Amino acid sequence: MTIATTNPVNGQVLKTYEAMSDEQIDGAIERTDLAYRQLRDTTIEQRGRWLTAAADLLEAERNEIARLMTTEMGKTFAAAKAEVTKCATACRFYADRAAEFLADEPADAEAVSATRAFVRYQPIGPVLAVMPWNFPLWQVMRFAAPALMAGNTGLLKHASNVPQTALLLEDLFRRAGFPEGAFTTLLVGSDAVDRILSDPRVRAATLTGSEVAGRSIAQIAGRELKKTVLELGGSDPFVVMPSADVELAAQVATTARCQNNGQSCIAAKRFIVHTDVYDAFAEAFAHRMSALRVGDPMNGDTDVGPLASERGRDEVDAQVRDAVDKGATVLCGGEKPSGEGWFYPPTVVTDLNPGMRMWAEEVFGPVAGLYRASSYDEAIELANGTSFGLGSNAWTRDPQEQQRFATDLEAGAVFINGMTTSYPELPFGGVKNSGYGRELSAQGMHEFCNVKTVWVGEGTATAGAGSHSE
Ligand code: NAP
């Protein structure tokens, strides 16, 4: 894949880059390894000062960074600015809370016949981050902020269509004060991932991206016995039950489906509506979806910009065409526009069945599948009836039903009466083919830590020195 900035509004190639040579990659790994030895010996307070400086830079340069993201992948300028702010917030969160998350955790010394026992969290070394283009700053930051605070270093292989944002991230951490090599951008294609992850100095990998990329990286990491965190695709259910506020649910459903031009892993993608409120919801939802303004993402009135690539737009269109050809009904949208730019209209498709691609696949664009359920059990069966398990939403004001959804939905997150989103305070990740491991919160930070058990005995002949071994 060419490493290039191509404006999705008109398909114009603005800047191309040569992929780094093997020698350049090896040099970068050498530098990150040296930086790791330096970083792990700095204090949490020092790392916190650098990460806070990164937050300050993000806030000061918010508009420029946002404009670059919009140019590279088409998200609205307003959404891009919000993404920069969210990254600054995450930096401050980890700068403020790392000391607490990394503090020694006392264990029950008596139970393990020790005078003292505790868990210590330590960094593990350079981590390879393979990242997608859809939230080009945020996806990287939610890995980088906790990883750097823990004393690890980062090697970023970003998506090939966001090279300038990738370079900006390296520059940001350098200017914030982190040692040279602590965070390095590698301008390489996905074919270089095997070489990088096979290097013994690279200790782990995190990938946010598709299932195909996840399987590939997990295979390499398995062969090399390296830890991975995989944040993969999703086809999140959005269930609406009779006690829900249907108007509010339709309003939030529209945002949940079309945020980021419909290209979010945790976007609600399958709308499963109880038959008692199906007609009311379908009408309100289609009305709101068709009222969204599609256009230039730099324009303040635009709700939905272009998709990030022509290939991505054609894939979404092919999924809709497949459903229509097999008997589905389009309530709004559904026609690929002619003209320049990779636009696609907000679309609602219903009368879906298991023979259609939309039933089983993730649709990465502003296209909603609408399903009717006659009962709670049928809603759960539909909701859990995919290979994915990232986020999920349920709309109900019945407290017992809320409890049941929280337990029964097979997903890494359940949001009730609200849309799925990520917060630095809450763990984020999936089950089933949506991946494994968690980002954000203390859990996210601990993923790339050596969770070290420390057992201290009295050191005398009479005291226990461990009752048995394994
Ligand atoms: P993608 O094709 O998997 O690309 C993601 C990253 O992986 C890019 O850097 C890409 O590099 C690299 N890559 C692709 N194939 C690879 C391979 N075989 N081996 C090693 N690296 C490989 O995904 P995308 O289409 O850009 O992004 C959309 C997908 O990401 C969707 O499925 C979405 O749901 C998922 N996603 C998940 C989350 C989450 O948190 N769970 C968040 C956002 C997106 P190149 O660009 O050079 O090909």
From TrEMBL:
This is Succinate-semialdehyde dehydrogenase. GO terms for molecular function: aldehyde dehydrogenase [NAD(P)+] activity; succinate-semialdehyde dehydrogenase (NAD+) activity. Belongs to the aldehyde dehydrogenase family. The lineage of its organism: Bacteria, Bacillati, Actinomycetota, Actinomycetes, Micromonosporales. CDD domains: ALDH_SSADH1_GabD1. Keywords: NADP, Oxidoreductase. InterPro entries: Ald_DH/histidinol_DH, Ald_DH_C, Ald_DH_N, Aldehyde_DH_dom, ALDH_GabD1-like, GABD/Sad-like. Pfam families: Aldedh (PF00171). Residues 2-454 form the Aldehyde dehydrogenase domain. The keyword NADP applies. It comes from Micromonospora sediminimaris.
